[in-house]
Write a structure and sequence with these properties.
263 residues; elongated; mainly alpha; 77% helix
Length: 263
């Protein structure tokens, strides 16, 4: 009976120690996570891709409505054929882009499509087909504003200026080009090795999902290390939980000891 009480008492003490150590580690990580959140606003990859898919839906809806308004102005058959064909390709490109495996790349590509689309319709296409094209340019203007609002959730002010600057510079150097549907940010950002975007991507600092996954892995690892440490102590003949841990030890010190025993 006494042995059973001792066993239950030991088990309870062991579980209590685990909870205390895990709480210490979790609080420390939460504090660090809080410090990181103060530096910048970020979202997960899934959240960003969801935003892009929703934007692609709006892209299709806004352009379709813009074309209806354009068509109501009785444009020339040539301009109608051009705009209809371009709209189909633009919508197809938006869905393809939103489904890209890397949401960061997809965001930059989507910004490129919407921004260049507005520029080209306001300038080249309007000059070619006249005032009715302004309806399409207005639709692209709405889309451009929409996608930049999404970009503002992920990119810093400096990065937003950088992306817009690269697009504007390319446009200045290529004023006669009117194909934008399948254009990609990487097509004109070849010198982006000095870019803050690349530096940010290399550090993995855009998405909080990376940090969340790391925290879960670290908590699991810590629990395993505590169990290994306790098991070793019991195997060495120390049956009292009070003998398993030094109250002065931190969670990381226990993990380090357990790691040395295993490896």
């Amino acid at each position: 009976m006494t042995n059973n009480k001792l066993t239950c008492s030991g088990l309870f003490a062991f579980l209590l120690i685990i909870l205390i150590v895990l709480a210490t580690v979790t609080i420390g990580m939460a504090a660090k996570k809080g410090e990181d959140k103060k530096k910048t606003y970020v979202m997960t990859e899934i959240e960003l891709q969801s935003e892009l898919m929703s934007f692609a839906d709006r892209f299709a809806s806004i352009l379709a409505q813009s074309f209806e308004d354009f068509d109501a102005l009785n444009p020339s058959p040539e301009s109608r054929r051009f705009v209809l064909d371009d709209m189909v390709h633009a919508i197809s490109s938006s869905f393809t882009t939103a489904a890209e495996p890397n949401p960061e790349t997809a965001l930059l590509d989507m910004v490129t499509i919407a921004t260049l689309g507005r520029m080209i319709y306001e300038d080249n296409i309007r000059k070619r087909y006249g005032k009715p094209i302004e309806v399409m340019a207005k639709g692209f203007g709405e889309l451009e504003k929409d996608i930049w609002q999404i970009a503002a959730k992920v990119l810093s002010i400096e990065q937003q200026h950088e992306v817009r600057g690269l697009i504007v510079e390319w446009r200045k150097q290529n004023p006669d080009k009117i194909i934008y549907n399948y254009f990609r940010f990487s097509d004109f950002a070849a010198d982006r090795r000095k870019s803050t975007l690349v530096k940010k991507d290399e550090t993995g600092g855009l998405f909080k999902s990376v940090q969340q996954a790391t925290q879960q892995i670290e908590e699991t690892r810590m629990l395993t290390m505590i169990w290994v440490h306790a098991h070793y102590q019991m195997a060495s003949g120390k049956l009292e939980p009070a003998e398993w841990f030094d109250i002065k030890n931190t969670g990381m010190a226990i993990a380090k000891t357990a790691a040395n025993l295993v490896f």
